[in-house]
Amino acid sequence: MGPEEPVIRLTGITKTYLAGEVEVHALVDVNLTIARAEMVAIMGPSGSGKSTLMNVLGCLDRPTSGSYRFEGREVASLEKQELSALRLSAFGFVFQGFQLIARTSALDNVELPLVYAEIPAQERRERAMVALARVGLGGRELHTPAQLSGGQQQRVAIARALVNRPRLILADEPTGALDTRTSVEVLGLLQTLHATGITVVLVTHEPDIAAYASRRLVVRDGRILSDEVQVPHDAAADLLAMPQKAA
Amino acid sequence: MSGKTTGRLSAFASFASFASFASIWPLAFGALRRNRMRSLLTSLGVIIGVGALIVTVASGEGSKAVLEAQLATLGTNLLIVLPGSSTLGGARGGPGTGKPLTHADLLAILKGASAARYAAPVDRTVVQVVLDNQNWLTTVYGSTPDFFAIREWSMARGRVFNSGESDSGAKVCVVGQTVASQLFGGGEALGQIVRVKSMPCEIVGVLAGKGQSSQGQDQDDLVVMPWVTYKSRMMSQDRIHVGSILVSATSPDEVGHAQTQVTGILRQQHRLADGQLDDFTVRNLADLAATQEKAADAQTGMLRNVSAVSLLVGGIGIMNIMLVSVTERTREIGIRLAIGASENKVLLQFLIEAVSLSAAGGLIGIALGVAGSAILASVMRWPLVLTPFWILIAFGISMGIGVVFGFYPARKAARLNPIDALRFE
Q1: Would the pLDDT of A108 be above 90?
Q2: What residues have CB less than 8 Å from A246, skipping those under 6 apart?
Q3: How many CB atoms lie within 10 A of CB A138?
Q4: Nearest CB to B7 within list A79, A89, A160
């Protein structure tokens, strides 16, 4: 992989579902290049294909046709087993509903990717502790999701996404279930990770959220409608300007 | 093609690797711990199945041991010759009412039956045995030294009366444990003189204890004296008739042969023509024992099959709950798959959960089964016979049940589509 090789290069990606007897063209001839350490927001209304695009980018779904090169390697035709391995080693996922394992401590949740990567227990624990501290949850390692607020749960999810040192973090509506202030906190965390050189792809339908990315894609009817570079909002600065949360 | 094959091979290698097992089992145990009550209830079927299997086998073996011990006290290779019954006006009178056996019959058997090693006359009556101011009601037997050999009766102390004493009608006797303890308590019975039906009689030996017979009779409550002595002192000088005759075959294989020989000799002795029915009965105790044992085996076998079926039902219970668990944990499975768990690791986790439930059920079942067998053994007064073979079988079956019935739910979990699973409500 040369230094100019993008992290993601989609060429002519299509995805067609069969919904009953009707063919649904979720993605139509999508061409997209995302360079290292970009922070990209993918916007679009529901049904636009942005979730399908996200799933294809995250190797959770295989495109019907087209080429997907991740760090220069063709992944569109990989076996399930190889896709799992890729997700485990290179991707971090942050989902809308947090998707933490219930009745399981924050620490155990964060350790999970390392368990599947067969990292020794001692190292696992240390790395999970560091990741939790990084998202500001030091001291809450043994809390279960039910004992944490929505914002805290999403931070656990971010810690889980970054614990395996991914090159790409995919966040699907990460602020969908959060209030404004908590949303900005979470975006601030993603901006911090982005600043360390991790590529971040953010899927949202809210322009306010997309404003924190350095590039904005709009998807509609399975096609990329617009692709603009923008000056991102600074979450840390916005947070300072906001009124403090009532205690 | 070759890349695909290598992928499969390496997938299999990673599935089988110790590292993946070591990393996955804590996840499986965590999931079981989060649902303690359900885990216990899921195992219950296997617990009951394994417990029942072990109790069944142990009680079968225990009752068989009792049966064998009781039959052994009768003496092996044993034939009993009983006199025939008379038929009066269509009513059959039972043994002893017809033509009696005679001493000549005994001598003929001793002389003619080559398959018989021993033959002894047996006459008995219930009398009061008196020692000074002590007395005890017991059964007095008249027989020959062969009697002790046939019944495989060993001596606790002293000796059996010898053939000289036997033939001459000496006033000697051998007493059983019960009689010895009733008359003498802790004291020495040997050499003492007791009065049996007013005849003074010297105790030359004390028999070793045999305990109860299969009919619950105390086999040690007896006095044995020479047949001649018995006939001349207990009965009115009748030295011809014999109550019954005990015969011991030369070996267990010869019992049938001995029975044929004895029957033939007695028919000749009694001058029975062809076509005439026997006026005596030759009973084969080995046959009786074999029948009894076969019946007990059949019963144990049937119960064992019932518990094996209940074990199968327990396995289906595990599959049922694991399937429910897969559905209920769809989102959790989706999370695991999305963050990069391979299908094999999800499969492994659910398989470990199922096998742990069934194996734990097996272990608890073994513990409860052994405890239950011990309680049953003490209540039924039979020995606690634990068969390691069946315990291992029970544990092996319960492990196997986990693998077999856990595989389908585990595969179902592993093959979930992570996108759909994450959206599952």
Answers
A1: yes
A2: none
A3: 11
A4: A79
* Nearest CA distance, B364 vs chain A (angstrom): 27
What is the Cα A149 distance to its own chain's centre? 20
DSSP B254: G
B342 touches chain A (CB under 8 A): yes
Q: Which of A142-146, B214-218, B410-414 has the lowest mean pLDDT?
A: B214-218
Rounded to whole angstroms, what are the CA distances from B24 to A127, B350, B352?
A: 18, 10, 8
Q: What is the pLDDT of residues B224-256, one digit of tens each?
A: 999 999 988 887 667 788 989 999 988 878 888
**Domains along chain A with CATH numbers:** 8-93+167-241 (3.40.50.300)
In angstroms, the CA B244 to CA A27 distance is: 104
Query: Which residues in chain B are contacts of A160 at CB distance < 8 A?
Result: 339
Q: How near does any CA of chain B get to the CA of A114, in Å? A: 9
pLDDT tens-digit series, residues B292-318: 788 888 888 898 888 888 888 888 989
Residue tagged 């894609």 (tokens): A217
* Chain A residues with beta carbon closer than 8 angstroms to that of B335: 99-101, 112
- B30 vs A contacts (CB less than 8 Å): 104, 108
On chain A, the residues whose CB falls within 8 A of the CB of B24 are: 115
Q: How many CB pairs under 8 A join A and B?
A: 70
Residues of A with a Cβ under 8 Å from any B Cβ are 55, 58, 60-61, 79-82, 84-89, 91, 93, 95, 99-104, 108, 112-113, 115-118, 160, 164
Find out whether B85 and B264 touch, Cβ atoms under 8 Å.
Answer: no
Q: How many CB atoms lie within 10 A of CB B202?
A: 15
Give the torsion sign (CA, A115, A117, A122, A123).
negative
Q: Percentage helix, strand, coil, to 5, in chain A?
A: 35, 25, 40
d(CA A9, CA A73): 10
pTM over 0.80: no
CA dihedral (B294, B295, B300, B303) in degrees, to 10, reads 140
Mutate to test the interface with A, among B15, B339, B346, B422 (most CBs of A within 10 A): B339
Task: Determine, for residues A95 and B332 on separate chains, whether the beta-carbon distance falls below 8 Å.
Answer: no
* Nearest Cα to Cα of residue A150 among A176, A111, A187, A188: A176
For residues B16, B17, B23, B26, the Cα torsion angle rounded to the nearest 10 degrees is 40
Q: Using an 8 Å Cβ cutoff, are A170 and A92 in contact?
A: yes
Shortest alpha-carbon distance between residue B357 and chain A (Å): 20
ipTM of the complex model: 0.94
Q: DSSP states of B310-326 as a string?
A: HHHHHHHHHHHHHHHHH
Distance between CA atoms of residues A1 and B370, nearest Å: 66
In this structure, the strands spanning B116-131 and B91-92 are unpaired
Helix (H, G, I), strand (E, B) or coil at A55: helix
Beta carbons of A121 and A108 less than 8 angstroms apart: no
**Across the interface, do B336 and A112 touch by the CB < 8 Å criterion?**
yes
> Which residue, among B58, B48, B50, B49, has the nearest Cα to B373 in the 3D structure?
B58
Q: Model confidence over B90-127: pLDDT tens digits?
A: 666 666 667 789 999 999 999 988 999 999 999 999 99
For an interface test with B, which of A84, A105, A163 has the most B Cβ atoms less than 10 Å from its Cβ? A84
Query: Cα B347 to the chain's mean position, in Å?
Result: 45
CA-nearest of A8, A46, A25, A95 to A219 is A46
Contact B339 A101 (CB under 8 A): no
Distance, CA of A153 to CA of A98 (rounded, Å): 6
